[in-house]
Structures are given as structure tokens and as C-alpha cells.
Design brief:
The chain contains twelve helices and 19 strands. It is α/β, with parallel strands linked by helices. Strands 1, 12, 13, 14, 15, 16, 17, 18 and 19 form a nine-stranded mixed beta sheet that branches. α2 runs parallel beside α9, α5 crosses α6 and α8 packs parallel to α9.
Length: 418
């Protein structure tokens, strides 16, 4: 069972000031989770988390994470600008992008960010764009093929297909890139890779670490370059369904430590720092989309209409993703009614739930849609002229702060040339 981090009375008071729909984030939960992550990797002196800004590009959130020692993983000009305005600069920024324009490389270099190159052709393109290559540089690796992990506690296999992904370099290309970058003046090298998304397995990160640690040993032997860090990227998932078991970050950190000591230490590479760039794991459970029931419809199915729509949370419409729903004030009532919970877009996939068993829902009820703290508001859009909702922060003292106001019609028309 999933329990909201706010009560019905709290939400009614909040909604009286900030009308639904809105996204709300739990500051206490975010801080506690960031501290658990740091503790899990505290055995590695150079460890740093680079929060994936794309997951929740909200300055108030970035500032909280900065206070907890996190940097920013950026992939665009806007994200670089946001990090800078939040006081995150220098090597506290990892710039990982693809099909990158020259101006974005230039800004990343001006900020002193660590640049992560996605393709071999970008080596010389970077040098031409900024007039040099930085002394510290990173390259993204794609091993190709299919990545399969041993069976997990949930009884399924984690599988993804790096060979179909547009990201990263082949094994020969990353060796060639390191050699060329060294010729151009680079002195400290990093390796980055991402093999699977939203994994509910404590084994994924250690398995990825072993692949990258072995690659680092081989590349050091082949090219002679100094590999100073390895970025394990993201992929640690969250339990969207109430019957799923969450990952144990302490167990994950210990598994990575064992791989480090078995592979890197014997190779004399015990000075390698480890980086992560988590988004979903850092934020998803600590955000709710709060929406109010506006209509009931009784035709071939039972529909509950709410004032939010896919423009506020795209994942169910885009991926068929499951997000748990709590009917506030009816948390202990029997789930004996089957509903589709829908928004108001002119698209039939604008559904937050399909054939979901829930308590009896009435017009005026508040619904909490769980696990929207990452890839929620961030993926919002304006189809049908829908306006993006406000973002609120439930602070550690129990007060609520507006951290992004809701859009207005004036915002929607602001870029129009009449």
C-alpha cells in the first residue's frame, strides 16, 4: 500500500490557495533519500551524485540537492543555464548530450563543466567549437547487443537493448577517442554508460559497474591514459506498483564496492572516483500530482473525469505506465469499483488509470497520483491549449511554498506574433 506524504485536510487547505491540479514535492523525503545515497557510496572518497536535471528541472529542487552535496547532470543550454543560476558550476556539472550544437559545448566549457562526449566525431568537433579540449573529459560507451540481468526478486529479468540505443560509442571507437583526446591535450579521462532503465534489482548497478571497471582496466592498458572517474549514470528504479519491492541503495553500494575491489584495486586503479546521475530514484517517490474529480460518466465503462490531464503527467499516455492513485479520505475503503480515470484532452490515451479498482469516487474528491516527482511536470506540454500546473514544496517545517506558479493564458500566447 502506498501512503501519501500529505493528508486530505492538508490538501484541502493547500487547494484553497493553489487550485488543482498541482505537483507537490516532499522536501524531507528528498533530503533523506539524498543522504542515504551518499552514505551508500561513502566508501569511495571521490564519489559524487549528478542529479539528472531533465527529471525535475525545477530550481528549488536543484537548490535542495545542491545543499545535500549533489551536482547537476545537464543535457541542453537551458539546463546549463538553470544549473548556473542555482549556483552549480565547474566540475559539479556533468554535460551529457547528443547531437550537440557548438554553442552548448561552448557554454559548458565556459562553466567549467565536465563534458561527456557521445560520439567519436564529436572529439574534433569539440576542439573546433571551443578551440581546445579540456584537460578533464569523459566519453560515453555503448556495448551494443542486449543487456540481460539475472532473475530478480520479482521473478522477471531486467533486459534492455543497448544495440538499439542512439547513445554512446562502440568499444573500438572509445579507445580511438581516448587516444585522439590525449593527442589534443586531455589528461584526465572518464567513462560513462547507461544500459537499462528503471531497474528494480539491487544487482543492476553492480553488474554495470563490473562492465565499466573491466573496460577501464583495458583502456588504461591500451591507451595509457589516466582514468580518473567512472560514471555509472542512472537506471536505478522505483516501485511504481504497491506490491513491488524497492531497491536497497545500501546493498547496491556494497555490491559496487565489491566489484571495485575485485577489478580496479588489483589493477592499481584504486584512485578512480565514482559518479552517479540519478533522476527517478532521487525524486519520483517524493512528488504527487494532486487533482480533483470534476465529472462522472456512465457509458460502456465507468469514467472518472479529473481536472488534470496528460499535459500534467504524460507517462501513462505515452508509455502505458502505472501510477498508483489514492482517493483522499477513502484510504481504508474497499476498492470495489472499476474505473478509467481520465483527463479532458481530445485524445483517448489521456488516461491516468484503466480498469483500476478503487473506492467509490464522488465528484469533488481529491486524488493523489503517486510517484510523479520525476518525469512528471518535466514532460508537460500544451496540447489542446492546456496550461501547465503549479509546483509546490512541502517544506520540512510543514509549510507549503509555491516554487513554480501555474501558467496563464497570457503565458500561452506570449510567443505569438499576431
Amino acid at each position: 500500500m502506498k501512503t501519501p506524504f500529505v493528508t486530505r485536510d492538508q490538501l484541502e487547505a493547500i487547494a484553497a490557495q493553489y487550485p488543482t491540479p498541482f505537483h507537490i514535492y516532499d522536501e524531507a523525503g528528498i533530503r533523506e533519500n539524498a543522504r542515504r545515497l551518499r552514505q551508500a557510496f561513502s566508501w569511495n572518497p571521490g564519489y559524487r551524485e549528478y542529479f539528472a536535471v531533465k527529471a525535475t528541472p525545477t530550481p528549488a529542487i536543484l537548490k535542495i540537492l545542491k545543499e545535500e552535496g549533489c551536482g547537476c547532470d545537464c543535457s541542453s543550454l537551458a539546463e546549463l543555464t538553470m544549473a548556473q543560476r542555482c549556483g552549480v558550476t565547474g566540475e559539479n556539472i556533468m554535460f551529457s548530450s547528443n547531437n550537440t550544437p557548438a554553442e552548448e559545448f561552448q557554454m559548458a566549457h565556459q562553466l567549467g563543466a565536465i563534458i561527456n562526449l557521445d560520439d567519436l566525431t564529436l572529439v574534433d568537433y569539440l576542439a573546433q567549437s571551443i578551440g581546445t579540449v579540456p584537460e578533464t573529459i569523459c566519453c560515453r560507451y555503448n556495448p551494443g547487443g542486449v543487456f540481460t540481468l539475472a532473475q530478480t526478486r520479482e521473478g522477471f529479468q531486467v533486459m534492455d537493448n543497448p544495440g538499439d540505443a542512439k547513445y554512446g560509442m562502440t568499444r573500438p571507437q572509445i579507445a580511438q577517442a581516448f587516444t585522439r583526446l590525449a593527442e589534443l591535450g586531455a589528461k584526465h579521462f572518464g567513462i560513462h554508460a547507461f544500459l537499462a532503465s528503471n531497474t528494480l534489482s539491487n544487482d543492476y548497478y553492480p553488474a554495470l559497474a563490473r562492465i565499466l571497471f573491466q573496460l577501464a582496466v583495458e583502456l588504461h592498458a591500451e591507451t595509457g591514459v589516466h582514468i580518473s572517474f567512472i560514471n555509472l549514470s542512472g537506471g536505478i528504479g522505483v516501485p511504481y506498483r504497491p506490491d513491488q519491492t524497492p531497491n536497497d541503495i545500501a546493498v547496491i553500494g556494497e555490491g559496487v564496492r565489491r566489484a571495485y575491489e575485485e577489478i580496479l584495486v588489483p589493477a592499481g586503479m584504486d584512485d578512480v572516483a565514482l559518479y552517479t546521475e540519478l533522476g527517478r530514484f532521487m525524486l519520483a517517490p517524493y512528488g504527487h500530482l494532486v487533482t480533483r474529480v470534476t465529472h462522472e460518466k456512465h457509458i460502456y465503462k465507468e469514467y472518472i473525469g479529473v481536472d488534470a490531464c496528460a499535459c500534467n503527467l504524460m507517462r501513462p499516455a505515452m508509455y502505458g505506465a502505472y501510477h498508483h492513485i489514492t482517493v483522499m479520505g477513502k484510504e481504508t475503503a474497499p476498492c470495489d469499483h472499476k474505473y478509467d480515470v481520465v483527463g479532458g484532452l481530445c485524445e483517448n490515451n489521456d488516461k491516468f488509470a484503466v480498469d483500476r479498482m478503487l473506492p467509490k469516487i464522488d465528484v469533488g474528491d481529491l486524488l493523489v497520483i503517486h510517484d510523479t516527482g520525476a518525469h512528471g511536470h518535466a514532460m508537460g506540454y500544451n496540447y489542446n491549449g492546456k496550461l501547465r500546473s503549479a509546483e509546490l514544496l512541502l517544506k520540512t517545517d510543514g509549510s507549503v511554498e509555491l516554487i513554480r506558479r501555474a501558467e496563464t493564458l497570457e503565458d500561452y500566447f506570449a510567443t505569438v506574433v499576431w
